[in-house]
Amino acid sequence: MKAIALTHFGAPTVLRCEEVAVPIPVPDQMLIRVACCGVCGHDLLNRVGAFPNTPMPCVMGHEIAGTVEAVGPVVHGFQPGDRVALNQRISCGTCEACRAGRDNMCRVGAGFYGEELSGGYGEFVVASARNAVILPEEIPFEVGAVLSCAIGTGLHALRRARLQLGDTVVVTAASGGVGFHTVKLARMKGMRVFAISSSPSKADRLREAGAEEVLDLAGFHSRVKSLTDGGADAVIEAAGSVTFGSSLRSLKAGGRLMLVGNVEPGHVPLNPGLPILRELEILGSAHATVADLAAVMELVRRGQIQPEIGAMLPVAEAAEAHRLMEDRQVTGRVVLTNL
Ligand SMILES: [Zn+2]
Ligand SMILES: [Zn+2]
Known about the structure:
It contains 10 helices and 18 strands. It has helices spanning 41-48, 96-99, 141-160, 177-188, 203-209, 220-227, 244-249, 273-277, 290-301, 318-326; strands at 2-6, 17-19, 29-39, 58-59, 63-71, 83-86, 89-90, 111-112, 124-128, 132-134, 168-171, 192-196, 213-215, 232-237, 251-259, 281-284, 309-314, 333-337.
């Protein structure tokens, strides 16, 4: 099949179309014909070498929707021709994490697309009944592709933050793919939302998405504190080191800092006194579970949340898609398509 396979790390020009083998499903897997694959910030980091253990050559892309082409002998609930959206990882279904419903934490299964598994920047991938969800006819493939990563990640973080109706939440990197959808989800779930964004031009769209206030990066914690009764219940930290300090100081006593994104990887200074004295919780939140994907799909089917697709390009133009993302020329997800 034709695919964009990473053979060495570097600039977008390393993303070239190659002839690679079609991945072979094991008996409890299916072969999926890829219709669309979202382009994630994670892919850009992988391309430049942030995950040095990525086996080469590797077909990139973990935000996948397509059609079931063939079904292994021990797969139940799916048949050729079914439209599906995939979660980013194929879990094992039996380890301690899987049994606890934390399939995003499974490290025993076939793994993560674009790294351990051949990904969606090609014509075919393998999938399992454990990471595939039937995509209703009314949801187009480009939307199905981005459900688990661009929206499910935010839903997972909001769930882990134990937020209730009426709670206050701050979302950093709010103009980005995960941040923007998290603002929408939080508003939809009846929360008061403050969006942090370095792009003033995107403030109107964030307000439309449900942000009560759109605040600039510089010292946003003082503004959050003055607008709330002592601070926010949680911060969804989708940026990383640039906002970490203000995010921590935005919290009220007992608040939760959810680490979700790490756009500019780096260490953060932490004075333990603040979390100790205010009993703050600092928690990680990684991707989404297949249950999050199913929940998000139902929200989209009912029209309660609509993913933003910023651009669609043929898979062969993956390098251009990465350039668009790096230059921040697009709001919403960039999606590659074989359609
Ligand atoms: Zn992603
Ligand atoms: Zn497992």
